[in-house]
Amino acid sequence: MDWYIILAATIKIVVFVFLVTLPLVAMSVWAERRVSAAIQDRVGPNRVGPAGLLQPVADGIKFLLKEDFTPNHVRKSFYWLAPALTMIPSLLTCAVIPFGSQLFGEKMVIADLDVGPLFVFAVASLTVYGIVLAGWASNSKYPFLGSVRSTSQMISYEISLGLSIVPLLMIYGELNLGRIVMEQAQNGWALLPLWGEGLSVKGWLLAIPLFISFIVFTTSMFAETNRLPFDLPECETELVAGYHTEYSSMKFALFFLGEYAAMIIGSGLAVTLFFGGWSLPFGWLTPESIDAEVPFWHGLIHIGVFFAKVILFIIFFIAVRWTLPRFRYDQLMKLGWVVFFELALANVILTALLLMWLK
Amino acid sequence: MTFLFFIFAALTLIGGIGVVVNRNPVTSAFSMIVSFLGLAALFIQLNAYLVGVLQVLVYAGAIMVLFLFIIMLLDIPKAENKRFPVFTLGASVVVVVSFVTLVITVITKSGVGTAKLPAIEAQKGPGQSDVHQIGELLFSTYWFPVQIVAVLLLVSTVGVVVLSKRELK
Amino acid sequence: MAIVVKRPKLKWYEHLYLPALAKGLRVTMGHFFKLLSGKTKVTMQYPEEKWDANLPEYYRGAPALVTDEQQRERCVACQLCEFICPPRAITIKPEEIPSEDKWAKVEKRPKTFDINMIRCIYCGLCEEVCPEQAIYLRKDYAITGTSREEMIHDKEKLYEIGGVREGLVNKWNELK
C-alpha cells in the first residue's frame, strides 16, 4: 500500500511537473514572443520547427552553451544558490494544484492538503530569497537596488494577495483546493454562478465580493510575478537588468524561467479558485461527489479543460503585458498599500456581512 | 516514516548551529531559514498542517526577509574574532545553564519515552481539518487572548508609525 | 522656469483603471486577431520572398566588371576608379599589352582587379568615373562570406557577377 502511494505520487510529480509544467514554461516564452509579435503586427520567431515551435529548444541549447561567467567580485556560494531559489519554490507550488478530477481512481493532485492556498502562498513567499540573494551576492549596485525594489514590491503585494482570497475561502468554508473546485463544478464557478445553487439571489450577491477579490488577486499576482505593468525590478534606464544583471547563461535563464513558472502557477491558482479548475461549465460531466467514481475519458477531458483554461489565462497575462504602460514605483507602492490592502480588508468585511445576512 | 523525522530534525539542528557558528550575518540568517523550514516539516509530519505552513509563511517567508533586508541594507560587517565582554559571557552562561536545567527537568518529570500521548487522527472531510479546529477554538474558547493580541499588535503598529514620523513635525 | 503640467481631471470610473484596461485590450487583441486572420500586411519573409523583381533600374548593388558582346574585357586599367574610390576598396595591378597583340593600341589591361567587399560602400563613384564603361553596380546585394579572403572579389569573380554589357566602347573601335 505504501509503495503504491509513493509510486502514484512519483508518477504524478514526474508527469505534471516535469513533463507538463516545465515544457509549458518553455512554450509560454514562445507564446509570449508570438503573441506580442501578432499584437504589434509582426511575425515573431517562426524559423525553428513548424511555426517556430522548437524555438524554446533552440533557446535552451543557446543558454546551455553560452559561457557561464562568474564575476570576480561576487559572493560565490550565494551567487550560485540564488537562481535555484527562484525556480524551485515556483515548481514546488505545483504540488497542491488539482489539475484534473480522477484517473484510475487516483485524485489528480500531487498532495491533497487541507491548507492548499496557504501552502501556495507560503512556498511562493520563499521566491523572495532568490531575488534578495541575487542582488546581495552580485555585490554591485544595480543588482542590489533592483533586488531591494523587487523584494519590497513582492512583500507589499503578498499581503493583498493573501487577503484577497479570504472572502472566497469564507464563502466556500474550505481550504482544500480539490473540494473548492468540486463545489464550483456543482454550483457555478466563483465568477460565473449560472447553474446549480449558484443560480440564486445568494449566488449572485456573493459574486460581488468574489469579483472584487478576483481583481485584487489578479493584479497582485501580476505584481508578485514581476510582470508588466509592474515589472519595476527590471529597468534598463535606471537599473540595467535589475537583480540578474551579473548573471549569464543558464543562471540567467533560471531567473527568466522562474518568472514564467511563477506566472503559470499563478494562472493555475487563479483558474482553480475563480474559474472552477478542471470543471466544465453548466455542470457537464461533473461527478456526483468528491469521492465518486469518474470514468476514464471524463478524467482526461477534465485535465484537458484545466490546461486549456490555464493557457487562456497565460495569454491574458501576455496580452496585458503588451497593452499597458508600466507604473511608476511610487504609484505601485501606493496602489499596493493604500488601495488594494484596504480594498481586500473591506471585501472581507463585506463578505462577512453578506454571509451573515443571507444565512 | 521515521527516517524523515531524523532528516528534518537534523536539518533543524544544523540550521540552528549554523546561526550561532557563522561569522557572516547573512549566512547566519540563512541558516535560520533552513532551521525554520526543518521545523515546519516536523510540524507537518505531526499532521499539524496549519502550524507548519504558517511557520513557513510567517517566519521563513516574511520575518526573515525583513531580517535579511536590514542586514544587507546596513551592511553589517563580519563579526570579528574578539574576546567577549564579561557581561555577555556571564549572561550567556546563565541562559544556557537555566535552559539545560529546564530541559532536564521536563525530561525527568514527564517520563518521555514511557508516557503515551493520545494519537492524533488525521481527520478528513469538510469542517474537520485542523484549520477548522484551530479557528473554532480561537474564536470561541480563546476569544479574549485573541483580542488582547490584536490590540497589542495595533498598539505596536501605531507606535512604529509615531516613531518613524517623528521628524516630520 | 518650471512648467506645471495640468493633469486632466479623471471621472470616478476612469480612476478604476479597468475600463482603460478593457479599451487597451480591445485595441491589442484587435491587432492580434487581424493578424491571425491574415488581414494585416506583415513584413516580407526574406530568404523565401525577395524584392529582386522590383529593384529599380538605378539600384546600387555590388560593383562588377563587364565584358562587351564579344567577351573582351572593357577595362583599360586607367586606375581612375582606384583613385576615386572613397574607402579604397579597389586595387588594380595594370599590365602592358604586348606589341604583337592585335589590340596593342589599347596599351594597358588589368593584370589583377580586386574589390574588397568589406570596404565597398556601394557609392557608385567607380561606375560614374569609368571612361570605358567597364565597371557597373549590379543588383546583387547579398554579398556574404565566411572569411575576409572570401570577401575580396578578384577579376574572375567580378566578370562572373558583371556579365556582358552591350554598347559603344571607344577602345575597340579601330578607327579611333
Describe this structure in words.
The complex is a heterotrimer of chains A (359), B (169) and C (176). Chain A is mainly alpha-helical and 359 residues long. Chain A contains 13 helices and 2 strands, in the order αααββαααααααααα. Chain A has one domain. Chain A has helices at 2-39, 55-65, 76-92, 116-124, 127-138, 141-164, 166-172, 177-187, 201-224, 236-239, 249-274, 296-321, 329-358, and strands spanning 102-103, 106-107. In chain A, α3 (76-92) runs antiparallel to α5 and α6 packs antiparallel against α9 (201-224). The longest helix of chain A has 38 residues, at 2-39. Chain A is globular. The model of chain A has no long low-confidence stretch (mean pLDDT 83). Chain B has helices at residues 2-21, 25-45, 49-74, 86-110, 130-139, 143-164. The longest helix of chain B is centred in the middle third of the chain and has 26 residues, at 49-74. Chain B is built from 6 helices and no strands. Chain B is mainly α. Chain C is α+β, with helices and mostly antiparallel strands and 176 residues long. Chain C has helices at residues 12-15, 18-36, 80-84, 125-129, 155-162; strands at residues 63-65, 90-96, 108-116, 135-137, 152-153. In chain C, the strands form 2 sheets. In chain C, strands 2-3-5 form a 3-stranded antiparallel sheet. Chain C has a two-stranded antiparallel ribbon with strand order 1-4. The radius of gyration of chain C is 28 Å and the shape is elongated. The mean pLDDT of chain C is 84. The interface between A and B is medium-sized, with 26 and 23 residues.
